User: Fold Response regulator from Sulfitobacter aestuarii.
Amino acid sequence: MSIKILIVEDNDMNLDMLSRRLIRKGYEIIAARDGQAAIDTALAQRPDLVLMDMSLPVLDGWEATKAIRGHAELAGLPVIALTAHAMESDRQSALDAGCNDFHTKPIDLAVLLEQINGLVPHDAAG
Assistant:
């Protein structure tokens, strides 16, 4: 069974590029374009992991992650923050919001795949 990843990204080019790269690696991809859609999609689709852009319309990634953590059925859902903000304080803010890990843009696919596998091993999906 493949791992289902929710990518939350409002930039079409970034979403398309990351989706295609992960699909090629065998992941199932669903997408949301803003923080509120991320919460709704996570509740409806039950992904195995969320890749959360932090700079989003409607509800930013920090608030969306906090809201996801507030739902008992999503409380254990792994969330990796994706952001162009690379300061240590940005990393800490993402972790404080409830993200499990942090990845700066541009995406280093090899590192991101290690992070994903560390949170959701391929044999644990489903």
